[in-house]
Amino acid sequence: MTWQPELEELRHREQLARRMGGPDRIARQHAAGRLTVRERIDRLLDRGSFEEYGALAGFAAYEDGRLESFMPANSVAGTGRIAGRRVVVCGDDFTVRGGAADASIHQKQV
């Protein structure tokens, strides 16, 4: 028995989550002079220190047992470092449902 199919689906979900609301919504953020949540976090924290928690939280749709689509939760949370000190960060992703809260945000914060 192998876990390879399950691991591949988790990796696929993570890739989909990192697309946030998609290229059009990211472009709209940039056109308005705004950064995405991950861009804001990258600028805030020491380079390479961010460890995200709950990236796979969100809403998935399946067709015949296959992942059809995945909309990530609009909250990005994790830990990182600022000037070497460990911190917790959380930010809203306005490319996903305009940043409106959903039930999975509570799970990420807990």
Outline the structure in words.
This protein is α+β, with helices and mostly antiparallel strands. It has one domain: 2-enoyl-CoA Hydratase, Chain A, domain 1. The chain contains 4 helices and 5 strands; from the N terminus they run αααβββββα. It has helices spanning 4-18, 23-31, 37-44, 103-109, and strands at residues 51-53, 58-63, 66-72, 75-82, 85-92. The strands form 2 sheets. The protein has a 3-stranded antiparallel beta sheet with strand order 1-4-5, sandwiched between helices. It has a two-stranded antiparallel ribbon with strand order 2-3. A hairpin with a 2-residue loop joins strand 4 and strand 5 (85-92). The mean pLDDT is 86.
Assign an overall shape.
flat
CATH class designation: Alpha Beta
Radius of gyration: 15 Å
Strand content: 25-35%
Total domain units: 1
Supply the CATH architecture. Answer: Alpha-Beta Complex
**Major sheet:** 3 strands, antiparallel
* Order of helix and strand elements from N to C terminus: HHHEEEEEH
Order of strands across the biggest sheet?
1-4-5
CATH-assigned fold name: 2-enoyl-CoA Hydratase, Chain A, domain 1
What's the average pLDDT? 86
How many E strands? 5
Q: Count of helical segments?
A: 4
Low-confidence runs: none
The residue fraction in helices comes out at 25-40%
Separation of the first and last Cα atoms: 33 Å
* CATH-assigned homologous superfamily: 2-enoyl-CoA Hydratase, Chain A, domain 1
Task: Quickly give the structural class.
Answer: alpha+beta
